[in-house]
């Protein structure tokens, strides 16, 4: 994983959503009441797995620093959305299922206790593990006390020329009320005394986010790369900011606010205008967490708690520096030996020309048969991006239809759609402007597309459009042919380099007809009731999966081949979990490969003895969703955009496509075989909800890294016989 300011916060947490509490289960009394793990604690357990990567001395050092930054970013979003949503629901009296029969306030207390534990562990991982290793590697994060006189003189010049003009100290007194503290901003709380009156006053300085979080120190001839935290530099120049005053004390603090967006959709209201108004309100959400340095005095803390309306439970006392998201900046260092080895994605074999030096023709390649691509092991640029660019330039292409959930700031995908529209093609873009934390970005893209002549729609009222779909309509002789792409990940060239995803290209008429009907439903007023190779939410996806789960249970009872294998980012939906429990009771072997939240309890006698759960984290973000069923000997598998969460199954438009090529089904089986193998490094979920990392044998030898193994296997892949 790598940091990029233009990459959305979905980088790890995949769009945390607080609105995921309405139970989908139908309890007939045959299953135990305590059969679900708590989803919030399960999410914190996921972030603990991220932290364990930062603590692992076998990983490249700058990647460990990056995982510390990812942990911090994840936890921020967790508080901004999930904790904020819980508090909002409790305050407004909305029911909050806890899965474990406890009161909502007890759930918040458990979350707070675990979050305090993890934040302390996170701070210690930097201070005691990663920072000393960085020092040994010649990368020093200094404090002011580490600097000599020559350093301080040079820093004084940097401060006066590059930092002082940007700072804005704000006094608090009868003429200056306590200032608004923006969410996630780093601040200095300063107490100063007037030398003549002796009056002590409080001031706040916001550490500018427009400046580097860690300021690089001038070269001192030592050959070391040296930094100082920006707030440390500022705090040691307070006399310049408060001339004539006596600076008594200063401390760092940081506030997290409720930044969940609630949009009351009304068919009579312009959705973009409603969303823009809500985005303005987001900035002023109530505080839900206060992080302070562990040396803050009681007087300053009492002032902050009183003015911010924070409870004692919401105060997190930590060693400096706060906000370790700043460690993302270390990824810019040119120290390849301290990073994962570079990997150059290869072009999918089935998309390469058959003749040397021939020009790629993706339409011809797809016409020969379905093509399954696996990113980032196989190139997004020479598959999805090239597909759209070829479609935009091809005079025989009449129309392009595409969904856009998240894309990058300089997206060649959007540029291809614009070029297609400008060349006279019919182009439809369904832009989901409610994609969390990408709302403003998507609004801007939507307006740019509209100006270029693209037909832009925003989906269905009350639903987010999360499916990943492209359809190209091409004139070939006397017939129109549909070329389709259905993926598990966003059409984002930047995240495609760090997100593991699958995508299917097909010229199958059945898929073409399915997508035509689905796009008509999304852009018009159609109510589609029948799809052939697709499972579509919200009406059919849960039902379709439950039907297949129940069928596997019956196959097991009948002595036929039965097996269920699921790969998802989150497993929360009660109806799906209950279906899996019943299948397990029937004897179906069930493999679940999950990245984040998992509310299912594996290995419970009489309930889930045949269920095993694995989690794989590493250099790439495991993001694909796969649903595989033995089918009594007729293997079926689907890929798509949906996780097993209420939001995906009830409040989003999602699509899974069935894989039909035997080679693709074998590939899916091989992927699961390896991921669930005891020879592969992974976390294993226990019945009580704890995750055990197993990355070495009993003899201390390293287990197989799944992502490295897949990378090697794909790099050696030969052209499929068709």
TrEMBL record:
Disordered: region residues: 1-27
Residues the record lists as binding ATP: 74, 499, 595, 623
Record has Magnesium as a keyword: yes
Post-translational modification: An intermediate of this reaction is the autophosphorylated ppk in which a phosphate is covalently linked to a histidine residue through a N-P bond.
Keywords: ATP-binding, Kinase, Magnesium, Metal-binding, Nucleotide-binding, Phosphoprotein, Transferase
Assigned EC number: 2.7.4.1
Cofactor(s) required for function per UniProt: Mg(2+)
Family listed: Belongs to the polyphosphate kinase 1 (PPK1) family.
Name of the molecule in the record: Polyphosphate kinase
Source species: Arenivirga flava
Gene name as annotated: ppk
